[in-house]
Design a protein that fits this description.
Calcium-transporting ATPase, cytoplasmic transduction domain A; 18% strand; elongated; alpha+beta
């Protein structure tokens, strides 16, 4: 895989590439990738790489089978240990340990053999097999069985954490309707959108999604554009306006002349953007991969030399073979291959309990290195729903009167703005008659005997009224009563209660830049950015423009830093997939965004990102501690074993003991709790 020129650091490919175990994802593209054992493996599920991992994914049934194997193995091991301490005859003790080994180790041994057949001699499975068999050869049956039992336990725990890892974008974004109502020979017929040609006329009824880009020939309707722009405010469109595929027609039928083919429509482009953004991610070269590539053949080679070279001079083959096997038992990288994934598992579990679902340890690692956080606005930093923010009455009117009369006039409307006004008004019985909707402008009605008009500035102009421009940012509904200007109602999308806390706390956690990208109007976006003291904002963006902004930010990223994108809409799916970590606000988020995301916040609270980054940093710190501890102790014990100072029991401590201590340290990640800012 090639590096992106602007993005030097590599990241684990989650969408359609490789998961933490190097598993081959079910993706049509073929790529070569590397496993933790340092071997290379092509996208062929039939090939064995010798790393001991089961490729192709661990389903729930396979995990249950492994758990049963571990339980049976543990029971046999305990039985063997009881026989061992009671000095039972060998024909009682040995079969128990052999049975334990057979139950828990047969797949690892087979993968070691298969790896040798395919030329991957120095796989992790090979080293585990040689070391454990060596223990049996030396007559240390408990150690031989224990090494493999503990190794498989660690693998099982790791698989539990990684089963939820997303291995591909499994579903195409569902923003393209399956049918289009095309007018041919004076008749309206339902066909596939792919069959509609440029220049033909289509009809979109209320509640339907626009199938193809085009220009409105007739009709007026409010359009829900959230799927494209993320903007919560429906846009009123009428004759001559351009309409994009993926929008939903809310309250009026539209007749549209098709301007683009199905494959070139906006919805289709968004789908391709998601797929292309995912394909640009590259596999990460984590420490364990580089380490195993050197460590495994080195220790096996050292053990062979230790057995052969001194024996040629001393003739004491038994002694030096014994030292070599002891050396191999010590050299087993259990402390790393178990404790490191277990630390990640603990971090993932802690994040889950804190309300953040992270789809793999590689994304937890990327959260630790967060340099830039990019937010969508609507539904992410703001509530994503309209509410009345302010009522500004004119002279001679009160707030209550303006809101009550406006609610009466809007009582028959289904427009989102009307619903916001009705929710804010007191529920009082009013006499409403002669209600009329004026397309693209507003409504008029007689409320309690008074002529009321509620709408935009165009409606007020038609009524010959002038009105002041409100200082507040938001959608403005002007109100006229009995031919006089009565005031206005400002409707806006309120900030979430924890948005400010999120921005402020992330700065203390080392995040250098916090940017907002939104499809909302410039005035609205800039007002929100100013209120939150963000480092930058870009407004009125379509999905491809958001993606271009992400690429621009990547160009100024320091090496080693990562970029997070937090969003919720279908329009966010391309950048969710492109970012190092795409975080979907799950409560209001679309299925497509959740599929494309690498982490999900179901509670829709941006402050959960604080928890995720804190947990990621603690997990990283514990992982580094385990690496330094395991390698340091291993180096000491390997030297002791080579000089014959360490016997096999010390060797077992150097292997299993260090591993257990590292695992206990790794379990600290499970206790991660939120700290208040």
């Amino acid at each position: 895989m090639e590096h992106e020129p602007h993005h030097e650091h590599e990241h684990e490919h989650e969408h359609g590439k490789c998961c933490e175990h190097g598993e081959c994802c079910r993706h049509e593209h073929e790529h070569e990738h590397e496993h933790d054992c340092g071997c290379e493996h092509h996208h062929d599920h039939g090939d064995g790489c010798g790393c001991g991992h089961e490729h192709g994914g661990h389903e729930e049934g396979e995990n249950r089978t492994m758990l049963i194997r571990l339980i049976i193995g543990a029971v046999l091991f305990i039985g063997g240990m009881v026989a061992h301490f009671l000095n039972a005859p060998l024909y009682v003790e040995l079969p128990l340990f052999l049975a334990c080994y057979a139950v828990v180790a047969y797949d690892v041994v087979w993968n070691a053999i298969r790896g040798i057949i395919h030329g991957n001699v120095f796989g992790e499975a090979f080293l585990m097999t040689i070391a454990s068999v060596g223990a049996f050869v030396l007559g240390e049956y408990p150690e031989g069985a224990a090494v493999m039992l503990l190794y498989q336990l660690g693998e099982w725990l790791t698989d539990l954490a990684l089963d939820r890892s997303q291995d591909s974008i499994r579903a195409i974004l569902d923003i393209r309707p399956d049918t289009a109502n095309v007018v041919r020979n004076g008749e309206t017929m339902t066909v596939s959108p792919a069959e509609v040609e440029i220049g033909e006329t289509i009809v979109i009824r209320p509640g339907e999604r626009v199938p193809l880009d085009g220009v409105i020939l007739s009709g007026v309707s409010a359009l829900d554009t959230r799927a494209l722009t993320g903007e919560s405010v429906p846009r009123t469109s009428m004759e001559g306006d351009t309409v994009l595929s993926g929008c939903i027609v809310l309250d009026g039928a539209l007749t549209v002349r098709v301007e683009k083919s199905f494959g070139e429509s906006t919805a289709s482009k968004i789908i391709r953007l998601v797929e292309d953004a995912a394909d640009r991610k590259t596999p990460a070269e984590r420490f364990i991969t580089k380490f195993a590539r050197v460590y495994t053949p080195a220790v096996v080679g050292a053990a062979v030399l230790l057995a052969v070279v001194p024996s040629l001079f001393t003739g004491n083959w038994a002694e030096w073979i014994h030292r070599a096997l002891t050396f191999l038992v010590i050299s087993c990288p259990c402390a790393l291959v178990i404790s490191i994934p277990l630390a990640v598992f603990g971090g993932l579990g802690a994040a889950s309990r804190a309300g953040v679902l992270i789809k793999g340890g590689n994304f937890l690692e990327a959260l630790n290195k967060a340099h830039t956080v990019v937010y969508d606005k609507t539904g992410t930093l703001t509530e994503g729903s309209f509410s009345v923010r302010e009522v500004l009455p004119a002279h001679g009117f009160t707030k209550e009167t303006v809101l009550r009369l406006a609610a009466g006039a809007e009582s028959f409307s289904t427009h989102p703005i009307a619903r916001s006004i009705l929710e804010a008004a007191d529920e009082t019985e009013q006499s409403v008659s002669d209600a009329h909707t004026i397309s693209g402008k507003g409504v008029t009605a007689t409320v309690d005997g008074r002529a009321v008009a509620v709408g935009n500035a165009k409606l007020m102009t038609d009524l010959g009224l002038s009105m002041p421009e409100p200082a507040s940012v938001g959608t403005v509904a002007y109100v006229a009563v009995d031919g006089a200007y009565a005031g206005c109602i400002v409707i806006a999308d309120a900030l979430k209660a924890d948005s400010r806390e999120t921005v402020e706390t992330l700065r203390t956690l080392g995040v250098q830049r916090q940017i907002m990208l939104t499809g909302d109007a410039k005035a609205v976006g800039e007002a929100v950015a100013k209120e939150l003291s963000l480092d930058g904002v870009s407004t009125e963006l379509l999905p491809d423009q958001k993606l271009a902004e992400i690429e621009r930010l990547y160009a100024t990223m320091p090496k080693g830093g990562t970029l997070l994108f937090v969003g919720d809409g279908i329009n966010d799916a391309p950048v969710l997939a492109r970012a190092d970590v795409g975080v979907a606000m799950g409560g209001l988020g679309s299925d497509a965004a959740i599929e494309a995301a690498d982490a999900i916040i179901p509670a829709d609270a941006p402050s959960k990102l604080i928890d995720a980054i804190r947990i990621a940093k603690k997990t990283h710190r514990i992982t580094i501690e385990n690496i330094v501890f395991a390698l340091g102790v291993k180096a000491i014990f390997l030297a002791l074993g080579a000089f014959g100072i360490a016997n096999l029991w010390i060797a077992v401590f150097g292997d299993v003991g260090v591993m257990l201590l590292a695992v206990l340290n790794a379990l600290r990640t499970l206790k991660t709790t939120r700290k208040t800012a």
